[in-house]
Specification:
With about 250 residues, the protein is of the alpha+beta class. It has two domains: about 90 residues, Orthogonal Bundle (Arc Repressor Mutant, subunit A), CATH 1.10.10; about 150 residues, no CATH class. It is built from ten helices and ten strands. It has a five-stranded mixed beta sheet with strand order 4-7-8-9-10, sandwiched between helices. Strand 2 and strand 3 form a beta hairpin.
């Protein structure tokens, strides 16, 4: 039985599977029915390799074909089977939440920033503990949170972080693979509780930094003309997202 099955660490497994595509979920349903699935070990099947290495699947047959390892995989025992069944139930229970998540991302990449902001603020309140964002470097917590949120866009966008562009390093950038789509630059600013800086002042500073440091230059050099610049300013779990309207 996998060690993680009785620990909070299995949340990682849940997150990976919950973000899986339709084919992955269909294959998981086959596994739950007692069937096996066949996978070739390569970079595109990392989730299955991870599940096997962590004990959530077992290889009942392996075969090396032209230098590539082919594996027949099955669920190893009753405990793991129950874990997967509970996960399937959770998919149905969280359908509306997932729809809201997809809506939030769609509003971002289509430029409907007001709607994106409303959903994102609610997302932050419900998914980030105060302990996380009250640490010494809460910018990194928000940064990691946003990157994790955006990673599901990787089929259509290149998601980059802390890379050089213009005269400095932007926080997060979404570079569309289709240059006719919107490119997005994000800059994070934290307001310390002992400072008198207002959210409005911090927002102005963040947008000015994007402009002065020419963070959008990488997007421009790739032929992307439609660019959104966002300042994400926060104090604990209080957050304000503002778009540069001087475009």
């Amino acid at each position: 039985m996998p060690y993680w099955i009785n620990s909070s660490s299995n949340d990682l497994i849940k997150r990976l599977l919950l973000k899986g595509d339709r084919d992955m979920k269909l294959e998981l349903e086959d596994l739950i029915e007692g069937k096996s699935i066949n996978k070739v070990e390569d970079s595109n099947q990392n989730i299955w390799s991870f599940l096997t290495l962590s004990g959530y699947l077992k290889a009942v047959k392996t075969e090396n074909i032209r230098g590539r390892l082919n594996c027949e995989l099955k669920i190893p025992n009753e405990e793991v089977l129950i874990f997967y069944r509970n996960l399937i139930e959770r998919w149905f229970q969280e359908t509306m939440t997932n729809q809201k998540y997809e809506l939030m991302l769609n509003m971002l990449i289509t430029g409907e920033i007001d709607i994106f902001v409303g959903i994102f603020e609610d997302f932050v309140i419900n998914n980030l503990s105060y302990f996380d964002v009250s640490a010494k470097e809460p910018e990194k917590v928000y940064h990691a949170f946003v990157l994790g949120m955006l990673i599901s866009l990787s089929d259509k966008y290149e998601v980059k972080s802390n890379k050089e562009s213009g005269y400095g390093r932007y926080d997060v950038m979404l570079i569309p693979k289709d240059v006719s789509k919107i490119g997005i630059v994000m800059e994070f600013k934290k307001i310390d509780v002992f400072l008198k800086t207002t959210i409005e002042e911090a927002t102005t500073a963040a947008l000015k930094q994007i402009e002065d440091m020419k963070y959008s230059q990488e997007l421009i050099s790739k032929g992307i003309k439609d660019i959104i610049k966002l300042a994400i300013v926060f104090k604990g779990k209080e957050i304000k997202i503002t778009q540069d309207n001087n475009l």
